[in-house]
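pinging the channel bc i need a second pair of eyes. not urgent but kinda urgent?? the chain im working w is below, pasted from the shared doc
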Amino acid sequence: IISLQGMGVQNGYVVEARYEDVAPSSAVIADVYPSSQGIVDLTPCLPGEDPCKTVLGAGVMLTVTVTDRDLNLDRLVQEQVTVTVRTDRGREPEETVTLFECEKQTNGTCTPHVDSKLFVGKIQTFSSSSFSSAGDGQINVLPGNCDKSCTGCDTGQCSGFVSVEYNDLSPQASIVKHAK
């Protein structure tokens, strides 16, 4: 057991432990990432639009990004995390979106990767007064009176927004990001 208390290890640092065995000759290396608060971001894009120039709204592919270093549990495995997407419409079912570990490329795309802190997934939005079905991979939204910065979204003082919830395990917190 190794204790790092009082050694000045901060979030964002990687602690590497190495064990070497003489018989049979082998070595094991383990990386440990101290807990870090996750960051959630939403980007609306029309299908095929690159770079994304669209404002959030109905009929866009909503890209959900979580940046969280401590989700990378194994640097040899592409990991995943789930988030919950909701609208302010009470009867519209929430959707669970799976985000996959990837690496952002210079052209803005995200390619699968095994040693990253970036997790990306997408969900399609539609403008419809009807309600979608739970688990169908889409969410129906309607225009509302929220401003682009979504002031008042978290308190319910406006309508017409989407929220994404990510449950961070370390440190334990529920992170909600609203967007208009």
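so The chain has a mean pLDDT of 77. and The CA atoms of residues 50 and 103 lie 17 Å apart. — does that match what u expected or am i reading it wrong
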